[in-house]
Amino acid sequence: MLSRRVKVINPLGLHARAAASLVRLAGTFQSDIKLVRTDNRVVADAKSILSVLTLAAAKGTELEVKASGDDKKEAIQRIEEIFRKGFGEI
């Protein structure tokens, strides 16, 4: 399993459109991908829009991305990149 910390930097946080982008991206990988809030340890399946939205991740929220599977390294890198780019909202 690989993990990496990311921070929500886009102004509206991980709202429906941003969450949908994340879920679409996560769905392209075979690996199991989880998001964990570092402040309250709420866990979400990155391939489920409803699960991701339950994180209620506003701007500034720090998440840990965890991936396990054959393509885990690429999955982590691509997900980190979408967070770093603010889901194209910055």
The CATH topology is Histidine-containing Protein, Chain: A
Biggest sheet strand line-up: 1-4-2-3
Order of helices and strands: EHEEHEH
CATH C-level? Alpha Beta
CATH homologous superfamily placement: HPr-like
Biggest β-sheet, characterized? 4 strands, antiparallel
Helix-residue proportion: 25-40%
* CATH 2nd-level architecture: 2-Layer Sandwich
> Average pLDDT across residues?
97
Which stretches are poorly predicted, pLDDT < 50 over at least 5 residues? none
The coarse overall form would be globular
Give the end-to-end Cα distance, rounded to a whole number of Å.
Answer: 31 Å
Count of helical regions: 3
Q: Could you explain the architecture of this structure?
A:
The protein has helices at 16-26, 49-53, 72-84; strands at 2-7, 32-37, 43-45, 62-68. The mean pLDDT is 97. It has one domain: Histidine-containing Protein, Chain: A, CATH 3.30.1340. The chain is α+β, with helices and mostly antiparallel strands. The longest helix has 13 residues, at 72-84. Helices cover 32% and strands 24% of the residues. It starts with a strand and ends in a 6-residue tail after the last helix. It is built from three helices and four strands; from the N terminus they run βαββαβα. The protein has a four-stranded antiparallel sheet.
